[in-house]
Design goal:
By secondary structure, the chain is mostly helical. The protein has twelve helices and no strands. Helix content is 70%, strand content 0%. The termini are far apart. The mean pLDDT is 92.
Length: 257
C-alpha cells in the first residue's frame, strides 16, 4: 500500500518546485523551461516519498535509480536543446490564447498543471517503492520494457539532434535510423518505459495503477505529444506530408512504399 502521508509530502515538494520554476520563468519571460522540469518532477516526488515513507520494499533502490536515469537524461537533453532558443512555439500559442495576464496565469495553466500530472502519473513509482512482495517475472518484463523505452527515447533524441546540427539538412525531414520506422521514436520510448514502470508496480501489488500509463499514453498521443506536434507541421514543413504517408505515427513498423 502507498504511504499516504509520504505521497502528500511529495505533492508539497512538487508544488514548491512548480512555484520556483514559475518565478524563474517570469525572469526569463519563457515558460517553456517547464519542459526541463517535467521529468525532474517525477524524480523529486520519488526521492521525497522514499525519504518520508515509513517503510519501503525490495524494489525501492532500483526503481529510484531507473527514475533518476530517465529523468536526468531527458531533462539534460531538453535543457541543452533549448539553450539560447526562444520560447517554444507551442507555449507562444498558449501565451497568445491566455492574454492578458498570462505571466500570472501560467502558474496554474502550465507549472501547476504539470506538477499535478506528475503527482498523479507517478503513483506507480511510489507503489513500486512501497510494495513488499518479492520481485518476479513481472519485474523482469517491466525492466525490459523500460530498457526498450530508454533506447528509443535516447537514441531517437540523439539522431534528431545530429540531423538538425547539419546545415545541409535545413528544411529536410529525418527519415533514417529509428525515424524510418516511427515518426516519434522518442514519444514511443516514453510510452514504453511508463508501461514498464506499471508492470513493476503491478508486481509490487498495485495493478490498480494502470490508470497512470493509460493517462500518459493519452497525453502522448492526443494532447501534448503527437497530436500537438503534428497539428500544423504540414504547413510549416511540406516535405513532412510524404513522410506521414509512408511512416507509422507511433508504433514502429516497416515504412510503406
Amino acid at each position: 500500500m502507498i504511504d499516504l502521508l509520504a505521497w502528500l509530502w511529495s505533492g508539497v515538494a512538487l508544488l514548491a518546485a512548480a512555484v520556483l520554476f514559475w518565478l524563474f520563468s517570469l525572469w526569463r519571460d519563457d515558460v517553456s523551461i517547464v519542459d526541463s522540469l517535467w521529468s525532474l518532477m517525477f524524480l523529486l516526488a520519488t526521492i521525497v516519498y522514499t525519504l518520508v515513507a515509513a517503510d519501503t520494499g525490495p524494489r525501492a533502490f532500483w526503481v529510484l535509480a531507473m527514475v533518476g536515469i530517465w529523468a536526468l537524461r531527458l531533462s539534460g537533453y531538453i535543457t541543452w536543446r533549448n539553450h539560447g532558443e526562444p520560447e517554444d512555439y507551442r507555449y507562444q500559442e498558449i501565451r497568445r490564447n491566455n492574454e492578458p495576464g498570462f505571466r500570472y496565469k501560467s502558474l496554474y495553466i502550465v507549472f501547476g498543471l504539470q506538477g499535478l500530472l506528475a503527482w498523479v502519473i507517478g503513483i506507480p513509482l511510489v507503489a513500486a517503492i512501497s510494495g513488499s512482495t518479492q520481485p518476479g517475472w513481472l519485474d523482469i518484463a517491466g525492466i525490459t520494457l523500460w530498457l526498450i523505452g530508454m533506447v528509443f527515447e535516447a537514441v531517437g533524441d540523439m539522431q534528431l539532434s545530429r540531423f538538425k546540427a547539419d546545415p545541409a539538412n535545413k528544411g529536410a525531414v529525418l527519415d533514417t535510423g529509428l525515424w524510418r520506422y516511427t515518426r516519434h521514436p522518442n514519444y514511443f520510448g516514453n510510452f514504453t518505459l511508463w508501461w514498464g514502470f506499471f508492470l513493476i508496480a503491478w508486481s509490487a501489488g498495485a495493478p490498480w495503477t494502470v490508470f497512470s500509463p493509460l493517462l500518459m499514453s493519452f497525453l502522448l498521443l492526443k494532447v501534448s505529444g503527437v497530436a500537438l506536434l503534428e497539428k500544423d507541421i504540414g504547413g510549416r514543413r511540406p516535405a513532412y506530408a510524404e513522410y506521414i504517408r509512408r511512416t507509422n505515427a507511433f508504433i514502429p513498423g516497416p515504412p510503406r512504399h
